[in-house]
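Example 3.2
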Amino acid sequence: MQQHGCCYAFASVLRQLIPASFLLALTGLTALPLAAQAAPQPASEAEMTLYTRITALNACISTSTGVEFNKAIGIAGETLTQVIQGQNGGAIKQLGVKPLPLEELRKGSINSVLIGVSQVCPDLMPADVRDKVKQALQGQAAGGAKAP
C-alpha cells in the first residue's frame, strides 16, 4: 500500500509540472497520419537563426561546464544537422530548395555553430579559433572567404 502512495504522490507532482495543454499538443503531434503531413520546407533565415542560436548556446553551456571545446562544437554541430534534416528535410532556403548532402550539411552546421559561439560566448572560444572565425567573417563581408 505504501508503494501505491509513493506512485500517487509522484503522479500528482508530475501533473502539476506538466500542463495538460503540453500533453495534448504532444499527443496531437504524434497522432497525425504521415500522409496528412506536408512535405518539409527549406529552413528559412529566421529558423536558421533560431537553430544556430540554440545550438551555439548549447555549446557555450557545455564548454562552461568543462566539456572540451571541440567536442562541444562537434555535438552542437551534429545537433544542428539533425534538426535541419528532421524539420526541413536537409534544405536551407538561402541555399536553394534542394536538400544538402549530409557531409556538406555537417560542415556548414559546424561553421554556423562556431559563428554563433563567437557571438554568444566568445570568451569561451580558444583564441586561435576566435581569430579564424573573425577573419572568415571579415573576408565574407568583403565578398571573398568562406567561413572556418
